[in-house]
Amino acid sequence: MTSHPAIGRRQFLTGALGTAAMIATPGLLAGCGDGGTTAGGDQNKASGSARLPNYTPYTGVTPDLKGNRQGLLDAFLKYPEPPVKASDGPPGDGGQFSAFVLTNSPVPPAVGQNPFWQEMNRRLGVDLRLTIVPNPDMPTKFATLVAGDDLPDVIVPALFTPNGLPAGTANLPAWLAAKCQDLSPYLSGDAVQEYPFLANLPTDAWRDCRYNGGIYGLPVPRGIGGTLMMRRDDLFTQLGANLQPGSFAEFRDVCRQVTDARANRWALAQAPLDFVRQMLGNPWRWKLEGGKLVSAYESEEFSQALADTARLVQDGVVHPDSFSNNAPTKKWFNAGSAMMITDRYTAWPQFFAENIAGPGFEIGGMRPPRHGGGGFAATWQAQATNNFTAFKKADEGRIRALLKVCNWLAAPFGTEEWLLRRYGVAGVHYRMADGGPELTQAGVSQTVLGIRYIVDAPDVIFVPGEAEATRKSYEYQKSIIPTAVKDPTLGLFSDTWSRRSGQLGTIVNDAQMDILSGRKPVSAWDDVLKQWRSTGGDKVRVEFEEAIANSAD
Fold this sequence. Notes:
By secondary structure, the chain is an alpha+beta fold. The chain is 35% helix and 12% strand.
């Protein structure tokens, strides 16, 4: 089947560098401290920190494959039929609901020419006034919005996204305190039970909404499955290739085996630096040792990963155009020009939505083997949120009215509300095929309002119309999540990181590009590391160490 791919978190990789290109520019979805992870959890110990909402899972829909509290997502082999009606009427009061939202798709038709938008207004009981901004324009548009000081009810700036932090953003906590609403009185502890779909959001996602000792937004949660190596199992099977190498040497052999430049086929869509780093036990960003942070870049394992990955490039097993800007890596993977690609779990259904290979198209997941053999290496946990939404300061009645609408927008997978929010009206915007919704052309153009970036339900594993693909994605994540390593700085804030992450990322990314492409030797990394540290890396380290110490008080 074919359908419009869901808008997921911005892909973890670009061109040849893979997710390493994002390591120095993760988001600023940061709170201060830790919190209880279950209903009735202890008050957060960090000085001045608000208690997180008490988690109460929604039980109205039963998944086909059950997730767990370790981070494994629920999986559905088909959309529940009939879907559950989870609300008893429009949550709004007939007034306006204004929002500044992003989109990764072409901006949809305005409300007067958009039946989906009109239907959302009716079902929500509000007049949705949306400022929909393409993701590349977000930093400029957000700066203009802030400068004009005329904020909408809710704000979803690119500033908050974990993989797209604009350089130059400074002192986010102070801006939130001055302009935005502390939602703690309405959401902390059991207060969130007034909004049951918000209470269904995972605790880790709420941690990323906490600043200034309060809760300053609603999260858009995502699963913690991080950098995953996906492979074309249908093509691997045809070539008789090893689906699961047991060491770096075996991985290199497989890459050579499946590469045939004459047939326009390469093993890898991009240089697999992160995959090799995982083989070597190199952390995503930081490792905590005795209360001190050690950067991933400072270890021998990182230098070795650079050297090993450069060898793969020299072997000719990486697509030769992968170092170009905006390389179409996903298209190569779908077309079979690249046999493996690293991406997030959210890309799995997108590949099937864009399938051009026919009914035999099959994807599998490769686990990173330990570099020298002897079992599997750990993967990295990803940020638990895609972004969060701040509220403009308002009186209690207005905040509660907005929260009621947002609660509806967080209705879980399997409900009528989720299906309408994501796919629109049956027969107009989508049709059901093989147990999954398939967007019509009207659905493709009209439904991308950006409202799923205001707040969203907990993510699930679901490939529409592809039950076996859903099962394979679930089993892959089930195999890696129990041993996945969490970065010690997730959920914490560093002002220097918020200001200089773009600059630091450029230093790292440019150097990696030079080394992997063979323009510079691996030994050049020593000077890059010195520059990274003096430009702000060491200061970021100190600020995160202070945040870790405070969160443990």
